[in-house]
Inverse folding.
């Protein structure tokens, strides 16, 4: 299979947001200009959940997809025990990607998607005053 341009939904605390990027099911990658130094995101398409890290560029995000595709069964559409098990397996891999400078984790306690919420809240507060 090859990567294809597409629009897909990303889950946030405010609900689903539509993003434009490339997909190679069950994953999508897109650039998200929301204040992170490394703006590229990998999303699990069936759940809309993003990996808990951001990537330096599109190639790094696609490399991550190729590395995690074999970690287990990604055929689920709810956050359940399988998702938790996959996250546990992925943690050392994400640590290694960070050490190689391919990605960054949030250092302020935020998870990917939260910055979208904060930007939305700041815009709302600015418009209300």
């Amino acid at each position: 299979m090859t990567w294809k341009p597409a629009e897909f939904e990303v889950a946030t605390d405010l609900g689903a947001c539509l993003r434009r990027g490339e997909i190679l099911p069950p994953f999508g990658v897109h650039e998200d200009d929301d204040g992170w130094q490394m703006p590229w995101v990998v999303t699990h398409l069936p759940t809309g959940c993003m990996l808990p890290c951001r990537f330096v560029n599109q190639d790094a995000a696609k490399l991550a997809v190729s590395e995690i595709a074999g970690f287990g069964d990604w055929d689920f559409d709810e956050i359940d025990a399988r998702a938790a098990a996959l996250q546990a397996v992925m943690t050392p891999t994400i640590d290694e990607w960070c050490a190689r400078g391919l990605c960054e984790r949030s250092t302020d306690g935020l998870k990917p998607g939260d910055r979208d919420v904060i930007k939305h809240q700041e815009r709302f507060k600015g418009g209300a005053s």
